[in-house]
Write a structure and sequence with these properties.
mainly alpha; 81% helix; 290 residues; single chain
C-alpha cells in the first residue's frame, strides 16, 4: 500500500504543470487567478484535516510563527513563482527545473547548517547542473522568445529554491507538530496571501471563466494538490524517504511524457540526455548510501 500511495501521489503531483498549462490554454487567465482558484478550492479539505487532527499537543507561539512563515514561503511563494514561470516554459522542462530542490537542500545545508557535502553529493551536484545546462542549452539566445524562456526558467528555479528553504528550515517544526497537521496548517496559511493578492490585482469579473477552465482548476486543486499531499505523507510513513525517492524520480519522467502526449511538447536528444542526468544526480543526492 505504501508503494501504491507513493506511485499515485507522485503521478498526481507530476500532472500539476500539465493541468496549469491546459488551464492557460483554455482561456485567457492570469497566474494570480489560477492560483487563487487552486488555493480556495483546496482550502476546505485542508481545514477539515486540521479539524480532524485538532487533538494533538498544543502549539507554542514560535510554532505558529514558523507555520505562518513556512506556509507563505513553501506553498504560496513557491506556487506563485511556479505558476508564473509556466507561462513561458514547457511543463516538462519546468518540472525538471523544479526537481532540483534536493540539490538546493544540500547547498543550503552546507551554507547555513555547516553540513559539509560528501564527495558523492558533490559529484551528484555536478552531474545535475550539467544536465540542466544541456536541457537549457538549445533554448538560449538573444531574441524575445529566448529572454522570456530564461525569465520563466529563473522563476521556476526560484520556486524550487523556496521549497528547498522550506524543507531545510521546517524539519524540526514538522517533528514537533506532526507532518499531517503541519501540512494542513501551512496549506491553510498559504491561502491567505493568495486571496489578498487576487483581491488587490484582479477584478471579480476575472472569475467569469469558461467551464473547461473551472474543470482544470478543480483538477488542479483536488487531483494535483489535496490528493497527492495526503498520499505522499502516508507513503513516507509506510516506506520511508529513501524508497520514496526512487518512486519520486518518476515524477519528471511522467510530466515529460504527458507534455509530449497532451501538449505536443518536444525534447531534443541533447535535452533528453540532460534530463536523464538531472534525474540521476537528484537520486544520488536523495538516496542513502548503501
Amino acid at each position: 500500500m505504501g508503494i501504491a500511495f507513493a506511485l499515485v501521489g507522485t503521478i498526481s503531483f507530476a500532472f500539476r504543470p500539465i493541468v496549469i498549462k491546459l488551464g492557460y490554454g483554455a482561456a485567457p487567465v492570469s497566474a494570480t487567478t489560477l492560483l487563487f482558484l487552486r488555493m480556495t478550492m483546496s482550502l476546505p479539505f485542508f481545514a477539515a484535516a486540521a479539524w480532524w487532527l485538532r487533538g494533538g499537543p498544543p502549539l507554542a507561539r514560535r510554532d505558529w510563527a514558523g507555520i505562518v512563515l513556512l506556509g507563505f514561503l513553501g506553498y504560496y511563494m513557491a506556487s506563485l513563482l511556479d505558476f508564473l514561470g509556466l507561462q513561458y516554459v514547457s511543463a516538462g522542462l519546468g518540472r525538471l527545473i523544479m526537481f532540483l530542490y534536493p540539490t538546493l537542500v544540500v547547498l543550503l545545508s552546507a551554507i547555513f547548517l555547516a553540513r559539509r557535502p560528501t564527495r558523492r553529493e558533490l559529484g551528484a551536484l555536478a552531474l545535475t547542473y550539467l544536465g540542466i545546462a544541456l536541457v537549457m542549452s538549445q533554448r538560449l539566445g538573444a531574441g524575445p522568445e529566448a529572454r522570456a524562456f530564461l525569465a520563466g526558467a529563473a522563476l521556476i528555479f526560484g520556486a524550487s529554491a523556496c521549497y528547498a528553504i522550506y524543507l531545510v528550515t521546517g524539519g524540526e517544526l514538522v517533528k514537533r507538530v506532526g507532518s499531517m497537521r503541519f501540512t494542513a496548517y501551512t496549506m491553510m496559511v498559504s491561502t491567505v496571501p493568495a486571496v489578498v493578492q487576487f483581491a488587490l490585482l484582479e477584478r471579480p469579473s476575472s472569475l467569469a471563466l469558461p467551464g473547461p477552465l473551472w474543470l482544470y482548476a478543480a483538477i488542479l486543486a483536488l487531483g494535483c494538490t489535496v490528493l497527492p499531499v495526503f498520499l505522499v505523507a502516508e507513503a513516507l510513513k509506510r516506506i520511508g524517504a529513501s524508497q520514496f525517492a526512487l518512486i519520486g524520480a518518476l515524477g519528471p519522467v511522467t510530466t515529460v511524457l504527458a507534455d509530449f502526449t497532451l501538449l505536443d511538447g518536444r525534447l531534443s536528444p541533447v535535452q533528453v540526455l540532460g534530463g536523464a542526468l538531472v534525474i540521476g544526480g537528484v537520486l544520488l543526492v536523495t538516496l542513502k548510501k548503501g
